[in-house]
Inverse folding.
């Protein structure tokens, strides 16, 4: 097994992504927080020529940033299994949005649905979907259909606009 070292800081999201990938692959690594260890920070800059994190060393190879392609080449694609971090039932607007956010956090996610879009693809009229600009305006504080804004005490000449 190669010697892997990850130079990182506590607040770096890409550092967490590198570590999560290595943990999922079962790759042992040494984690060095260059935010608190100035000597190791100098060593990281000498090795990589970079002040930014993460810097990952795999034996003598230096990987700067979260390079998923290179990590996959070195350690193989993520192991497949039946254990997921998140299970989402339904692929309507909420389910798909949840799936996108889970993927951004590198969570292994499974979405179960009969179709993509849920009831939204079968409905001819959706009046409360926050993605429509007219609805967004309504929910910014106006009372739907009355033309009144309870925050400002004003009325609009065209109710619902």
């Amino acid at each position: 097994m190669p010697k892997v070292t990850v130079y990182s800081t506590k607040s770096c999201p890409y550092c967490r992504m590198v570590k999560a990938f290595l943990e999922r692959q079962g790759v042992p690594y040494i984690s060095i927080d260059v935010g608190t260890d100035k000597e190791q920070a100098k060593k990281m800059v000498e090795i990589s020529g970079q002040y930014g994190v993460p810097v990952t060393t795999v034996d003598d190879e230096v990987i700067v940033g979260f390079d998923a392609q290179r990590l996959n080449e070195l350690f193989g694609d993520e192991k497949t299994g039946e254990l997921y971090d998140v299970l989402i039932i339904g692929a309507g607007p909420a389910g798909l949005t949840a799936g996108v956010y889970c993927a951004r956090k590198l969570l292994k996610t499974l979405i179960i649905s009969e179709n993509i879009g849920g009831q939204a693809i079968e409905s001819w009229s959706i009046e409360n979907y926050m993605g429509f600009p007219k609805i967004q305006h309504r929910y910014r504080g106006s009372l739907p259909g009355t033309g009144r804004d309870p925050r400002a005490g004003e009325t609009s000449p065209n109710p619902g606009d």
Summary: The first helix runs from residue 13 to 25. The domain at 4-75 is CATH 3.40.30.10 (Glutaredoxin). The radius of gyration is 24 Å.
